[in-house]
Amino acid sequence: NAQECFPVWLDNYKHDHSVHWLNFHSIDCKEEIEDFATEMGLHPLSVEDIYTFVQRPKVEEFDSYIFFSLRSLEPNTTSLELKKEQLSFILGSNYLISFQEKKSDHFTDVRERIEFDKGRIRKRGADYLLYKLLEAIIDNYFEVIEDVQQKIEEYDIRMAEEDDHSLFKEIEAEKRQLIELRQVVFPLKELFGQLEKLNNIQIDEENKYFFSDLRDNCLSLLDEIESNKSILEGLGNIYYAIQGQKMNEIMKVLTIVGAIFIPLTFIAGIYGMNFDNIPELHYKNAYFYCMAVMIILAIAMLIYFKRKKWL
Amino acid sequence: NAQECFPVWLDNYKHDHSVHWLNFHSIDCKEEIEDFATEMGLHPLSVEDIYTFVQRPKVEEFDSYIFFSLRSLEPNTTSLELKKEQLSFILGSNYLISFQEKKSDHFTDVRERIEFDKGRIRKRGADYLLYKLLEAIIDNYFEVIEDVQQKIEEYDIRMAEEDDHSLFKEIEAEKRQLIELRQVVFPLKELFGQLEKLNNIQIDEENKYFFSDLRDNCLSLLDEIESNKSILEGLGNIYYAIQGQKMNEIMKVLTIVGAIFIPLTFIAGIYGMNFDNIPELHYKNAYFYCMAVMIILAIAMLIYFKRKKWL
Amino acid sequence: NAQECFPVWLDNYKHDHSVHWLNFHSIDCKEEIEDFATEMGLHPLSVEDIYTFVQRPKVEEFDSYIFFSLRSLEPNTTSLELKKEQLSFILGSNYLISFQEKKSDHFTDVRERIEFDKGRIRKRGADYLLYKLLEAIIDNYFEVIEDVQQKIEEYDIRMAEEDDHSLFKEIEAEKRQLIELRQVVFPLKELFGQLEKLNNIQIDEENKYFFSDLRDNCLSLLDEIESNKSILEGLGNIYYAIQGQKMNEIMKVLTIVGAIFIPLTFIAGIYGMNFDNIPELHYKNAYFYCMAVMIILAIAMLIYFKRKKWL
Amino acid sequence: NAQECFPVWLDNYKHDHSVHWLNFHSIDCKEEIEDFATEMGLHPLSVEDIYTFVQRPKVEEFDSYIFFSLRSLEPNTTSLELKKEQLSFILGSNYLISFQEKKSDHFTDVRERIEFDKGRIRKRGADYLLYKLLEAIIDNYFEVIEDVQQKIEEYDIRMAEEDDHSLFKEIEAEKRQLIELRQVVFPLKELFGQLEKLNNIQIDEENKYFFSDLRDNCLSLLDEIESNKSILEGLGNIYYAIQGQKMNEIMKVLTIVGAIFIPLTFIAGIYGMNFDNIPELHYKNAYFYCMAVMIILAIAMLIYFKRKKWL
Amino acid sequence: NAQECFPVWLDNYKHDHSVHWLNFHSIDCKEEIEDFATEMGLHPLSVEDIYTFVQRPKVEEFDSYIFFSLRSLEPNTTSLELKKEQLSFILGSNYLISFQEKKSDHFTDVRERIEFDKGRIRKRGADYLLYKLLEAIIDNYFEVIEDVQQKIEEYDIRMAEEDDHSLFKEIEAEKRQLIELRQVVFPLKELFGQLEKLNNIQIDEENKYFFSDLRDNCLSLLDEIESNKSILEGLGNIYYAIQGQKMNEIMKVLTIVGAIFIPLTFIAGIYGMNFDNIPELHYKNAYFYCMAVMIILAIAMLIYFKRKKWL
């Protein structure tokens, strides 16, 4: 249905009372969009809003349509930063226009379902279509969470093995993803609450149930975000604990080696001195006695460390 | 009562106005459940919800029944992760249908009590039966808390002895259990609040008191969760403090040994040099004076460390 | 007044319209209490509640009485855990029955005051007596706080001296006391709010002021709990800082000794080598020059450390 | 006006309808105050409240007056603890009685202004006078904040230089001051809110504006407290970071010295051995080759450390 | 329009019903401002408020005008502290007077737009002009956020390289900026809420939409502040983790070198002793056997460290 030449679409939607959906794969050609907006009778402010990139989702009621814009966030397979995209919607009584920042496959799934099940959407109206599209976006949010959860399981395993602080950095990067997601979902929750309360011809009373469902999804997302953030913080704590314990182990090795051999080296040093008169040097078995003392000292040290549970 | 062949059950429940309970031990045979649902006049969405696994508990009112689903969590004796199961309920005016994800013994206790005390449940109605089942699930939540409390006592003891970071990991695992539990109990609290306010023929005014009781239990659980989380955090802090102190002890041993013997070894090294002209080497008691100096130095060091309270 | 044989008491309270107080020093003899409850016309659920130990305080209205149960917490002079006791009250129009878990002296003070000032309590009614008993319990809560504050002062002093992690453990134990207290006081606050709103013949409009006073005390307690928890956290931070600084000091000593003597020992080692041809060994004043170089090196090191403010 | 003999004051205030202010410089002479209270028709509870020291400020309405008590907190130039004082006020229709715990100069400023500008206060009434006194107390709270801010600037500078943990202790002491202040200001805010809503002849509708102004001041104070607490926490973090970095530096020095000279000393030790048959010892330039190897080793180590950015 | 001589302006604004804007570039000449205020019929309190520097923004309604004051915050290119300035506005029915603390270019942009588009502002009224000025100030707040975000990206890169604690200090300084900003924006949000509810002739019903827009901006700012604070805290954690890891690396080098060479040096020391009777010394290949043992020992150690993943 999407991206036909405008005149045809405009013609279609005016004469046909079934639902029309127009999707812009990019918003690069501003001029044409402006022309189209004038043709559709959209407020200039709405066009401006399509081009203003903000964090908070936004809903605005106009006389003949509702303007709606939000951020899509998706996990990024190649980097630790989320894929972000601003999406805007214009919901009229029998049409829905969506604007994507760049060509992406957000709505493939929905489009397929539409092909398959034209009847239902036609019957339900443009607001139901909007609900379907928003649901697809919120599903992406859930994917971010799932991605984080998968990463957490991965970190649980990597934790004990790796020593690199890159692990810690990744944990913090995941936390940032959750912070970013939270910044989008939190106002979205309120926004769906607003949408439910609107008395607007564009949204059917009957379909409001669906928007309340989206609101529940947002609540669920916020729960998940908080829980996963806590778990990531816990992972960070474990990292510190492991780091501290590795330090302890390293120092134990040095201390045990040092505490045993430094005194012994000193004894060896004494009998390496060149004083003319060191009586011990001339006793027959002095060397063997000396070695015995050294071994006893070393064993005493080992027992001491054993008692201290350092070994 | 449970899992008789459906036709008999259906026949029974339609002709008999006493309470009927049907429990599905598993939800593997989706087709049969769908057939049964059609027979019962259940909404297809309800069947779908039985198969959708979500974190948040959910209640939905339909014309002839209330749909209710939540997560059961139980402590796991063999691992640090909780046993999880999704449970769904359909409460009609004179019947209750429950769906378990897998065969488990959640309701054994309730079933026994029913055997024993059929009269009371019959008199009270299906909503009272639902209350009894929910109570059994919430009792499991309390078991999670008790399990955590027991672990805390165990950790208190293990703390001083063990040096392994596995203890710290366990503490964090317990915290995760609490986070997970919180994620279930928090929305449950709100849900029971909703249930109290419903004007529905399925729930007797008189029995609403029981649901308000369950809500109180949830509040109690949330209090316990927060307190135990704080205590676990405190344990984590103690772990860090002990780790730091062990480090200090390790370093003290190395430093004391090093600070005493490294200078002495140097002195021994001096008189081990092979210069032709080292006058001291030829004094008669030089060796003994040298030893005396070394001993005095060592004692001075020991006094210094004693003063510093390192010994 | 307390613990006379029941029949006499029952007889008394029925014929005499002044206030009657019956205190159970223990709840071990369950059977007798059940008999007594039947005699008094108490609901079986109330008796059950006396024997159910829960964290959250609870109030329940019955036709002829109000049931009230809460936890008493007292500082424990011999251990770091609080003394806990469940107390239950049954407030009728002209009687008050209290149940103590074990024989303790919670109410000695109140009893003495009653002996002394019978008139006032008689005039005021059973609800005033309840208020007096609850006040005594809340005074115990304040004692917990005072105990914590005293400990904080003690820790402030011990902090710099001690090196043992037992101090840190004690800090965390005090925090746990506050967490436990909070868990009791927080719902208590809400409960007194409920009590104020009750329209019940058992509580005089005039005496409601007293319960609002108890609520204020709870608020005050919660403030104190939060403040003292923050202060204890601060103490924990200081502990870490001191631990870190001690570590730094220990390492400085080792580093200074090592950095001065390890290079010098190396120089001594060179001239201790047995090569046939080491020309320096045969210079007349080589030994003295060598010593001079060593002393200069040591002084240079000391100046370096002085500049680094390590000395 | 203050502290004339009571009879004269009493006489004055009864016959003269202008505003009367009586300030008690201390509350040591309890008996006289009790006599005076009886004379004035004050409730015994109010006198008791003057002598009860509590953290939370308190307001109580009586028939002919309002009782008001709060804590004054002032920065202490000689110690890190705040100067505390309990102040109580009794506001009648044409008089104000204030009680100070000890002789202090809280109200000097106000008294001077009164001397200077008698007219205004007389016209405005006793509630305006109370407002002026409360303002003076709240100004002290702001001084605590300013004192903390000054300290923060001081710490910013001292941070890098000092190594003593006393700095950290001071930071925590400042935090405690803020916690203490918060404990007073937070309920005060609510209290002024209550005062605004009172329908009481003692407070003019017109003057309520002033109390709402005080409430704004409290909000401002709470903001400042939170911000400064966060900043102090930040300073604590910096302290830890610096401590950690100093540790790193100390260990680097030891490690560099150790890693260079310990292997070299070992080489020297080899050729210091007295085996009969060590061929190298007899080569003509062996000593010089050996020295060359040592120097190359040392340089290699230095390059390694340079690459690691430890130098 | 701004800063003409007052009489002309006064004359103008009285006779002309279009919008008049007077901007004070500085508030140094207090006397003249006071004169002007009298002329305009402003309340003396308003003039006082212009000269009182407070953190919280403030709005006050007077009979003929609304007083409004807030803090402007701007990122500072040369230092880590924000540029602060107090701005006050007086909004009459057809005039707006603004007071800047010091000559700055806050409003250049707005002034240019006014020059360009006089018509619109004239039509919309003085409240629209106020909106435009406030928008300019809030844009500055957003610049602070953007500045912080840029810094965060910078820190992400610098983190791994630098070892200086100055980085940590900068992170804390950025946090302070956010704390400061929060202290301004949070009450501002509430203030715009108040403004919306005011029934005042100075603000058109129609223009209230703009103030609700500013409130949304404040909410957005608060979201951003919290998110960025969390990210900065995460950066601080990474710093600690890197610091800890560097420490571990440093200690590993020392420990490996020490654990290999200290025992070897001891062996060398043994055969450097001058006992008359050390049989090994006289074996023919003793030296070579000794060297072999040493090499084997060193290799064993290396394998041990390799297994421990220290190499």
What does this entry look like structurally?
The first copy, chain A, is an alpha+beta fold. Chain A folds into 2 domains: 6-243, 2-Layer Sandwich (Beta Polymerase, domain 2), CATH 3.30.460.20; 247-307, Methane Monooxygenase Hydroxylase, Chain G, domain 1, CATH 1.20.58. Chain A contains 9 helices and 5 strands; from the N terminus they run H-E-H-H-E-E-E-E-H-H-H-H-H-H. Chain A has a 5-stranded mixed sheet with strand order 1-5-4-3-2, sandwiched between helices. In chain A, a hairpin with a 3-residue loop joins strand 4 (83-91) and strand 5 (95-100). In chain A, helix 4 (108-116) crosses helix 5 (118-124) and helix 8 runs antiparallel to helix 9. Chain A starts with 5 loop residues before the first helix and ends with a helix. The relative contact order of chain A is 0.08. The mean pLDDT of chain A is 85.
